[in-house]
Design goal:
The protein is of the alpha/beta class and about 375 residues long. It has 13 helices and 17 strands. The structure holds pyridoxal-5'-phosphate.
Length: about 375
Amino acid sequence: MSIPYGRQHVTQKDIDAVVETLKHDFLTQGPKIAEFEEKFAQYVGAKYAVALSNGTAALHLCALALGVEQGTKVITTPITFAASANCVRYCGGEVFFADIDPKTALIDLEKIENLLQAHPKGTFAGIIPVDFMGLPVDLEKVRALADEYGLWIIEDACHAPGGYFIDSKGEKQTCGNGAYADLAIFSFHPVKHIACGEGGMITTNRKDLYDKLQLLRTHGITKNPDLLHENHGGWYYEMQTLGYNYRMPDILAALGISQLERAEAGLQRRQAIAARYDEAFRNSKVCFFQYPKAQIKHAYHLYVIQVEDRKGLYDYLRTHQIFAQVHYIPVHTLPYYQSLGYQKGAMPEAENYYAHALSLPMYPTLTEAEQDFVIEKVLEFCG
Ligand SMILES: *Cc1c(COP(=O)(O)O)cnc(C)c1O
């Protein structure tokens, strides 16, 4: 029996939904896409949603839609998947990292502010905060800073579908609802909450961006009579901007719709698993992230612990067929980013976090017996 850190859950109902689409006319973008977009937008509480081929494509189109180009300066966190920063590079922009808050492992607002204050106003165009682990960033506070400095916000919510924070007005702000961020992105990679194989989604409340994204998703081509400059007949289309083929197939949207129906149940299961880990590690040398439970719903894509001898524990767990993982190697220390001049040592909190972090198994189908085995082995090693 081997226990991974994450695992998708595909039911017979999911399989039936996929098979059903194969009997219809649309294999790529068709009616299932529109349905998935509508249901996903409703789930997170946003006005619009755009389904895409994967989360990285979603980030790329967000950067394009917001006008990132050669030299555009954008701030993000070093503790994230590389794609959160790469999307800026795809457009020729320049990435600035703001170090994390060690109490949450999320981007530190003070560090963002320091960065903004250290440069003339107008230097930066935007911020990409990440709801890392599934812990929602306080976007109300990020928005206040963004407004002061005229920045846009792309929320990388890949880890956090269904998570929320309560804002200063006492209102529940679901990740990706577009209340404070201009755009938010999600991924349907198998290890994420909703598994499509590959897939991504952008959510927004901004109609102007929604229109741009739809164009960018399919080569910059439109057939919409309202948008055409000329019209030669029924066949006529115009390529109005340089776009891509970032479409999601209808086959995968059917899987996404079926998975979305179980999202809330999966989230509850993740919370129960986290509560059992918290309880087991409470009086041990294993550190875990705490957060104000009344203010925040943590979506628990990951359950990260911090231990003295991380490599020792990682190797020890593997000898027992427990495949824990590390999220993430700080992006600024990856060889590509170092080749651009980013230095090791520049983000001490992120680097210290990385030295001790380990993600334990966390997925809805993890059984209590499996979890107990993981806990036993972790405590055995850590004492
Ligand atoms: C998974 C992930 C992405 C990229 O999503 P893909 O669908 O794999 O391209 C981006 N950001 C974060 C934080 C992720 O976890």
